[in-house]
Amino acid sequence: MDARTPSALKPRKRPRQARARVTVDAIFEATIQLLLKDGPHRLTTTRVAERAGVSVGTMYQYFPNKQALVYALNERYLEVLAEKIESTCRAQHGAPIGQMVEALVDTYWRAKTERADVTRALYRSVAEMDNQTLVDDFAARVNAATTAMLASASDTTLDDLEATNLTLVTVIFGTVRNAFERTLPAAQAEALRGQLVTMCRAYLDAVTA
Amino acid sequence: MDARTPSALKPRKRPRQARARVTVDAIFEATIQLLLKDGPHRLTTTRVAERAGVSVGTMYQYFPNKQALVYALNERYLEVLAEKIESTCRAQHGAPIGQMVEALVDTYWRAKTERADVTRALYRSVAEMDNQTLVDDFAARVNAATTAMLASASDTTLDDLEATNLTLVTVIFGTVRNAFERTLPAAQAEALRGQLVTMCRAYLDAVTA
Amino acid sequence: MDARTPSALKPRKRPRQARARVTVDAIFEATIQLLLKDGPHRLTTTRVAERAGVSVGTMYQYFPNKQALVYALNERYLEVLAEKIESTCRAQHGAPIGQMVEALVDTYWRAKTERADVTRALYRSVAEMDNQTLVDDFAARVNAATTAMLASASDTTLDDLEATNLTLVTVIFGTVRNAFERTLPAAQAEALRGQLVTMCRAYLDAVTA
Amino acid sequence: MDARTPSALKPRKRPRQARARVTVDAIFEATIQLLLKDGPHRLTTTRVAERAGVSVGTMYQYFPNKQALVYALNERYLEVLAEKIESTCRAQHGAPIGQMVEALVDTYWRAKTERADVTRALYRSVAEMDNQTLVDDFAARVNAATTAMLASASDTTLDDLEATNLTLVTVIFGTVRNAFERTLPAAQAEALRGQLVTMCRAYLDAVTA
DNA sequence: TATGAATGAGCGTTCATTCAT
DNA sequence: AATGAATGAACGCTCATTCAT
Predict the structure, then answer these.
(1) Which candidate, A148, B113, B153, D10, has a CA 20 to 30 Å from the CA of B15?
(2) Is residue B1 part of a domain?
(3) What is the total count of domains within chain C?
(4) Which residues of chain D does C41 touch, with a Cβ-Cβ cutoff of 8 Å?
């Protein structure tokens, strides 16, 4: 929950107590399940509350409105994802650049694949409401991390760090999303991931020469 | 309108007269504008009709329900897009492979950029309703065209045509989509396009060696 | 079309020409079929016109609105029915009273049974719109005919002609309607008709004694 | 609410609290009034809710759709009516048969007359939706009660119990309905009831002889 | 504090009716 | 005279949100 979160979407209270955290988790889980089962346009506050085992009233104590719920769900998801990426970037600090992109692709791909259902559910929910802020914040954060990582490469210096970074990030994230929407068989998906690494490495060779 | 279109989504009548075509176009245009302005969940039949300057009743003479409208809009768009890609693929038949991917990226990028608003509106609308059929059909069609093109490359033979093709298509389409969602400044977008070509060429060099 | 028909329900033009009569018949027939197939609340002007093979516009030249159509249909049906009853009453003039009621029951039952589907369709349609006038007029007309018939009985004089007549008519018409709504098997229906005659005869014996 | 009620028509929740019962009663009452004032085709959910002094939403908490409302109204009415008839049949067990039919006519007539407006409203509403199940169930229930009663007559044994029973029930119910649709003046209605008893008695004498 | 009954604006859709052609 | 595209009020129904208990 950074300072940029629009106030209308801010959770009403932070889950300080253990009980509150359990409740919020149940609500999030219920939301994901319903998103998956029925799609975003069938997601209703009543159903979420019911499945989460709380009353609507209680739900409105944690989230001021429906959009805030979806917003918070995505926020939490992107927070975890950003942390994973930042962690990878830190771990790869000073490594050879080829290894860096491989690690980046792996991290991102694995994160998305771990709970593929959640990934798909959230991709669908983001478009629904206006969660652009969230996406932009995530992009900025990832950008900072990957830029710092690439700048520290032990084996090369990039002429145009900004452009190369933007390219890599856009290509990797875009490709992964597209791969998800095609619902490829596991073998093909795995092969694709390998090809993506190959491609990124080849690209870096080309712009580094 | 291919035979696979679910019957519930089939337009009720085709616009035979000039006047009818104008009406249908106005409805499509209104839909795009509303999709852009308010997002898919604010798209209502009343608002579409109002903005198109027709009555709801008239709208329902052309589309049996709201979903059919969005479906038809995407269908029309993807039809044009598929034709452009097929045309490019035919034109590049027998060309050197590097030139092929450059042409493919250019065609796709230009098509998406020509009316960026439409592109963005439709990206948002696809997730909403069940337009998976549409997307799958489009993918299959494009796949056939690009596979045939790549197979005819004058300067090389690909070891694993299928895999390479899938990779290229997924990367290009995914990257373009992601680039659009970031709403980059024109210069950066242009640079990105160049980098994408570089990357694809480098990849082909790598897998062809 | 007697003078009591509310003006809003009056057909716009009488079918003078042969062609017009054919059209009106087609419209009536279409109405009956739709009434049977889908029930009164699915009866729409568009569907009637379509099934009758004319345009809605043409239909509105014969009937100023939907209610007028249903009204006219019932009117025509009741007209024919009233004529049959009047004819029977005239034929039974001066006959023994027991034979009179038997003839009355037979005529009414046969008329309703001839096209049982139409009977049922119309029973359902009458309740829908306000066709009370029609029903009242029919009742008055039948009343006059049966009263005259009963008064002429060769074998008896009724003490309270009015009351006996009302009783017979109400019982016969009510019983037939109820029998229709129960959709009895043919044999049971036939038996019931016989019992009804027996009952009416027994009643007349009782009030004549 | 017997097990045969189609699930789509089942009330959503039973009125447990006193307040809820008041609400449901108000909705029923409003439905009756509107049915009487405007007829079934003018009965709209909005108008019912408005007249009942509740919101549409509240109405939909008790009834899943409009048809279910009309269904429940008829169900409640027929339930009470069936109980009255069964009660009469039990009370007349072993009595002389003439007294039996008199009691049956009296009970039925009084029940219908008590709230003539309700009677008329429901007669009009039954045809509208598919309440045939309801009517059939009612018929079967009444049939069992009257058959048992007639079989126990102290002064006679019927040759064809089934046929006689069907005749009596069809005649009585049909006559009452028809009498209601004619909206007779009180005196005439009362006389008619007497005549109906006379007729039934005479019929029984005839088939018993 | 937690509940869930109540609200009512607003949705997608239908269809009787009109009128330009 | 005949057509049928266009109209838009009105329908049945949903669901985010509130608030008395």
Answers:
(1) B113
(2) no
(3) 1
(4) 41, 128
